[in-house]
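Look at one record.

>
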Amino acid sequence: MSDVIVITGIADGMGREVAKMLVKEGHSVAGFDKDKALLNSLGEELKSINKNNVYLEDFDISDRKCILKFRDKVLEKFNKVDTVLSNVGIGFFGPFEEIDLEKALQCFEINVIGAAAIFKAFIPFMRDKKKGKLIAMSSLVGRIPFPFESIYTATKFALTGLIESIRYEVEPFGIKVALIEPAQVSTRFAAKIHVLPPSNSPYFERVKRFINRDNELIKTAPDPSFAAKKIFNVVMSKSPRLYNQIDFKSTFFLWLNNFLPVKLRDLILVNYMDIKLK
Protein backbone atom coordinates (compact mmCIF):
# COMPACT_ATOMS: atom_id res chain seq x y z
CA MET A 1 0.00 0.00 0.00
CA SER A 2 1.36 3.43 -0.94
CA ASP A 3 2.14 6.11 1.63
CA VAL A 4 1.45 9.84 1.60
CA ILE A 5 4.47 11.97 2.50
CA VAL A 6 4.49 15.72 3.14
CA ILE A 7 7.80 17.46 2.38
CA THR A 8 8.63 21.08 3.15
CA GLY A 9 11.35 22.80 1.14
CA ILE A 10 10.62 20.31 -1.62
CA ALA A 11 11.77 22.23 -4.70
CA ASP A 12 15.55 21.83 -4.45
CA GLY A 13 18.38 19.72 -3.07
CA MET A 14 17.62 16.67 -0.98
CA GLY A 15 13.89 17.42 -0.71
CA ARG A 16 13.57 17.37 -4.47
CA GLU A 17 15.51 14.12 -4.84
CA VAL A 18 13.52 12.37 -2.11
CA ALA A 19 10.24 13.48 -3.70
CA LYS A 20 11.25 12.04 -7.09
CA MET A 21 12.29 8.77 -5.50
CA LEU A 22 9.03 8.44 -3.58
CA VAL A 23 6.79 9.10 -6.60
CA LYS A 24 8.81 6.66 -8.73
CA GLU A 25 8.16 4.03 -6.05
CA GLY A 26 4.41 4.65 -6.26
CA HIS A 27 3.97 6.82 -3.19
CA SER A 28 2.11 10.14 -3.02
CA VAL A 29 3.93 13.38 -2.28
CA ALA A 30 2.57 16.72 -1.09
CA GLY A 31 4.87 19.64 -0.54
CA PHE A 32 5.48 23.33 -0.69
CA ASP A 33 8.31 25.75 -1.36
CA LYS A 34 8.64 29.50 -1.85
CA ASP A 35 10.74 29.10 -5.03
CA LYS A 36 7.97 29.03 -7.62
CA ALA A 37 10.21 28.40 -10.64
CA LEU A 38 11.94 25.38 -9.12
CA LEU A 39 8.62 24.13 -7.76
CA ASN A 40 7.00 24.30 -11.20
CA SER A 41 9.85 22.36 -12.80
CA LEU A 42 9.62 19.72 -10.08
CA GLY A 43 5.86 19.52 -10.54
CA GLU A 44 6.26 18.82 -14.25
CA GLU A 45 8.85 16.15 -13.51
CA LEU A 46 6.76 14.42 -10.84
CA LYS A 47 3.50 14.59 -12.77
CA SER A 48 5.18 12.99 -15.78
CA ILE A 49 5.66 9.96 -13.51
CA ASN A 50 2.22 9.99 -11.88
CA LYS A 51 0.09 13.14 -11.93
CA ASN A 52 -2.41 11.73 -9.41
CA ASN A 53 0.24 11.23 -6.72
CA VAL A 54 1.41 14.84 -6.49
CA TYR A 55 0.17 17.98 -4.75
CA LEU A 56 2.37 21.10 -4.63
CA GLU A 57 1.88 24.68 -3.45
CA ASP A 58 4.14 27.73 -3.44
CA PHE A 59 4.28 29.71 -0.21
CA ASP A 60 6.67 30.59 2.59
CA ILE A 61 6.99 28.37 5.68
CA SER A 62 6.51 31.44 7.89
CA ASP A 63 2.90 31.82 6.68
CA ARG A 64 1.01 29.87 9.35
CA LYS A 65 -2.40 30.29 7.72
CA CYS A 66 -1.09 28.84 4.46
CA ILE A 67 0.27 25.83 6.34
CA LEU A 68 -3.15 25.06 7.81
CA LYS A 69 -4.89 25.52 4.46
CA PHE A 70 -2.27 23.29 2.86
CA ARG A 71 -2.88 20.61 5.50
CA ASP A 72 -6.61 20.67 4.87
CA LYS A 73 -6.16 20.37 1.09
CA VAL A 74 -3.70 17.50 1.45
CA LEU A 75 -6.05 15.55 3.71
CA GLU A 76 -8.95 16.28 1.37
CA LYS A 77 -7.02 14.99 -1.65
CA PHE A 78 -5.33 11.94 -0.12
CA ASN A 79 -7.47 11.22 2.98
CA LYS A 80 -4.35 10.53 5.01
CA VAL A 81 -0.75 11.53 5.75
CA ASP A 82 1.76 8.92 6.85
CA THR A 83 4.92 10.99 7.19
CA VAL A 84 5.90 14.64 7.48
CA LEU A 85 9.48 15.44 6.45
CA SER A 86 10.52 18.93 7.57
CA ASN A 87 13.26 19.72 5.08
CA VAL A 88 13.04 23.50 4.78
CA GLY A 89 15.95 25.47 6.20
CA ILE A 90 18.34 28.34 5.60
CA GLY A 91 21.99 28.73 6.48
CA PHE A 92 23.64 31.48 8.48
CA PHE A 93 27.37 32.12 8.33
CA GLY A 94 29.79 34.58 9.87
CA PRO A 95 31.65 35.52 13.06
CA PHE A 96 29.14 35.84 15.90
CA GLU A 97 30.46 39.28 16.88
CA GLU A 98 29.56 40.64 13.45
CA ILE A 99 26.17 39.05 12.77
CA ASP A 100 22.88 40.85 12.17
CA LEU A 101 20.53 39.71 14.95
CA GLU A 102 17.42 40.47 12.90
CA LYS A 103 18.63 38.03 10.25
CA ALA A 104 19.46 35.58 13.02
CA LEU A 105 15.84 35.72 14.17
CA GLN A 106 14.73 34.89 10.63
CA CYS A 107 16.97 31.82 10.69
CA PHE A 108 15.29 30.62 13.90
CA GLU A 109 11.87 31.41 12.45
CA ILE A 110 12.44 29.19 9.42
CA ASN A 111 14.65 26.41 10.80
CA VAL A 112 12.94 25.86 14.16
CA ILE A 113 9.50 27.45 14.23
CA GLY A 114 8.88 26.37 10.63
CA ALA A 115 9.45 22.74 11.57
CA ALA A 116 7.32 23.14 14.69
CA ALA A 117 4.47 24.64 12.64
CA ILE A 118 4.28 21.87 10.05
CA PHE A 119 4.49 19.15 12.71
CA LYS A 120 1.87 20.85 14.88
CA ALA A 121 -0.48 21.05 11.90
CA PHE A 122 -0.47 17.29 11.24
CA ILE A 123 -0.10 15.83 14.75
CA PRO A 124 -3.87 15.90 15.52
CA PHE A 125 -4.63 13.76 12.46
CA MET A 126 -1.83 11.30 13.25
CA ARG A 127 -2.88 11.12 16.90
CA ASP A 128 -6.44 10.24 15.93
CA LYS A 129 -5.19 7.54 13.54
CA LYS A 130 -2.68 6.24 16.11
CA LYS A 131 0.13 6.26 13.53
CA GLY A 132 2.49 8.56 11.67
CA LYS A 133 6.08 9.76 11.43
CA LEU A 134 7.61 13.19 12.02
CA ILE A 135 11.08 13.53 10.49
CA ALA A 136 13.27 16.63 10.74
CA MET A 137 16.28 17.49 8.61
CA SER A 138 18.86 18.46 11.20
CA SER A 139 22.64 18.37 10.80
CA LEU A 140 25.91 17.24 12.30
CA VAL A 141 26.01 20.73 13.85
CA GLY A 142 22.81 19.88 15.70
CA ARG A 143 25.02 18.00 18.15
CA ILE A 144 28.56 19.26 17.45
CA PRO A 145 29.01 23.05 17.29
CA PHE A 146 30.92 24.54 14.36
CA PRO A 147 32.68 27.94 14.40
CA PHE A 148 31.40 30.78 12.22
CA GLU A 149 28.06 28.97 12.08
CA SER A 150 26.92 29.86 15.59
CA ILE A 151 23.36 30.88 14.72
CA TYR A 152 22.83 28.00 12.28
CA THR A 153 24.30 25.64 14.88
CA ALA A 154 21.95 27.06 17.52
CA THR A 155 18.92 26.45 15.28
CA LYS A 156 19.93 22.84 14.73
CA PHE A 157 20.57 22.27 18.44
CA ALA A 158 17.10 23.72 19.05
CA LEU A 159 15.58 21.49 16.38
CA THR A 160 17.22 18.43 17.93
CA GLY A 161 15.85 19.39 21.35
CA LEU A 162 12.40 19.99 19.87
CA ILE A 163 12.27 16.55 18.27
CA GLU A 164 13.65 14.78 21.34
CA SER A 165 11.02 16.46 23.52
CA ILE A 166 8.12 15.90 21.11
CA ARG A 167 9.02 12.20 21.05
CA TYR A 168 7.98 11.71 24.68
CA GLU A 169 4.63 13.37 24.02
CA VAL A 170 3.54 11.70 20.77
CA GLU A 171 5.00 8.19 20.83
CA PRO A 172 2.21 6.94 23.17
CA PHE A 173 -0.16 7.79 20.29
CA GLY A 174 1.79 5.68 17.79
CA ILE A 175 3.67 8.61 16.23
CA LYS A 176 7.36 8.00 15.54
CA VAL A 177 9.93 10.81 15.32
CA ALA A 178 13.38 10.92 13.73
CA LEU A 179 16.26 13.26 12.94
CA ILE A 180 18.38 13.23 9.77
CA GLU A 181 21.94 14.39 10.52
CA PRO A 182 24.06 14.98 7.41
CA ALA A 183 27.52 16.51 7.68
CA GLN A 184 27.93 17.73 4.12
CA VAL A 185 26.01 17.09 0.92
CA SER A 186 27.09 18.46 -2.44
CA THR A 187 24.34 21.06 -2.93
CA ARG A 188 24.31 24.83 -3.48
CA PHE A 189 23.63 25.35 0.23
CA ALA A 190 27.18 26.29 1.32
CA ALA A 191 27.80 28.53 -1.69
CA LYS A 192 24.72 30.56 -0.77
CA ILE A 193 25.93 31.36 2.75
CA HIS A 194 29.74 31.60 2.50
CA VAL A 195 30.53 35.31 2.74
CA LEU A 196 33.87 36.74 3.80
CA PRO A 197 33.83 39.44 6.47
CA PRO A 198 35.49 42.80 5.71
CA SER A 199 39.26 42.54 5.22
CA ASN A 200 39.84 44.55 8.40
CA SER A 201 37.83 42.08 10.50
CA PRO A 202 39.87 40.33 13.22
CA TYR A 203 38.28 37.09 11.99
CA PHE A 204 39.03 37.56 8.28
CA GLU A 205 41.97 35.16 7.87
CA ARG A 206 40.42 32.32 9.87
CA VAL A 207 37.06 32.67 8.09
CA LYS A 208 38.86 32.64 4.74
CA ARG A 209 40.67 29.41 5.65
CA PHE A 210 37.42 27.89 6.93
CA ILE A 211 35.61 28.66 3.65
CA ASN A 212 38.48 27.30 1.55
CA ARG A 213 38.57 24.11 3.61
CA ASP A 214 34.78 23.73 3.49
CA ASN A 215 34.80 24.15 -0.29
CA GLU A 216 37.45 21.43 -0.57
CA LEU A 217 35.36 19.05 1.52
CA ILE A 218 32.19 19.74 -0.48
CA LYS A 219 33.94 18.50 -3.64
CA THR A 220 34.09 14.99 -2.16
CA ALA A 221 30.76 15.14 -0.30
CA PRO A 222 27.93 12.80 -1.33
CA ASP A 223 25.52 14.20 -3.91
CA PRO A 224 21.81 14.81 -3.19
CA SER A 225 20.74 11.57 -4.88
CA PHE A 226 23.00 9.53 -2.57
CA ALA A 227 21.66 11.36 0.46
CA ALA A 228 18.10 10.93 -0.82
CA LYS A 229 18.44 7.15 -0.80
CA LYS A 230 19.38 7.25 2.89
CA ILE A 231 16.54 9.65 3.69
CA PHE A 232 14.12 7.51 1.67
CA ASN A 233 14.99 4.52 3.88
CA VAL A 234 14.23 6.53 7.02
CA VAL A 235 10.95 7.80 5.57
CA MET A 236 9.83 4.28 4.64
CA SER A 237 10.97 2.62 7.88
CA LYS A 238 8.13 1.52 10.16
CA SER A 239 10.25 2.26 13.23
CA PRO A 240 13.02 4.71 12.33
CA ARG A 241 15.86 5.38 14.72
CA LEU A 242 15.87 8.74 16.48
CA TYR A 243 19.28 9.71 15.06
CA ASN A 244 20.09 8.94 11.43
CA GLN A 245 23.40 9.86 9.80
CA ILE A 246 23.60 9.72 6.01
CA ASP A 247 27.33 10.06 5.39
CA PHE A 248 30.55 8.73 6.87
CA LYS A 249 31.75 12.10 8.13
CA SER A 250 28.67 12.67 10.26
CA THR A 251 28.79 9.12 11.62
CA PHE A 252 32.50 9.40 12.43
CA PHE A 253 32.38 12.78 14.15
CA LEU A 254 29.32 11.89 16.21
CA TRP A 255 31.03 8.65 17.26
CA LEU A 256 34.08 10.65 18.36
CA ASN A 257 31.84 13.09 20.18
CA ASN A 258 30.50 10.26 22.34
CA PHE A 259 33.93 9.22 23.60
CA LEU A 260 36.41 12.09 23.41
CA PRO A 261 36.87 14.81 26.02
CA VAL A 262 35.60 18.16 24.73
CA LYS A 263 39.10 19.69 24.55
CA LEU A 264 40.40 16.86 22.39
CA ARG A 265 37.32 16.96 20.16
CA ASP A 266 37.78 20.72 19.72
CA LEU A 267 41.45 20.31 18.85
CA ILE A 268 40.57 17.80 16.12
CA LEU A 269 37.82 20.06 14.77
CA VAL A 270 39.97 23.21 14.73
CA ASN A 271 42.74 21.42 12.84
CA TYR A 272 40.32 19.64 10.51
CA MET A 273 38.72 22.94 9.46
CA ASP A 274 42.09 24.79 9.37
CA ILE A 275 41.05 27.57 11.74
CA LYS A 276 43.79 27.39 14.37
CA LEU A 277 45.25 30.77 15.32
CA LYS A 278 48.56 31.25 13.50
Notes: The chain is about 55% helix and 10% strand. The first strand starts at residue 4 and ends at 8. The chain has one domain: 4-272.
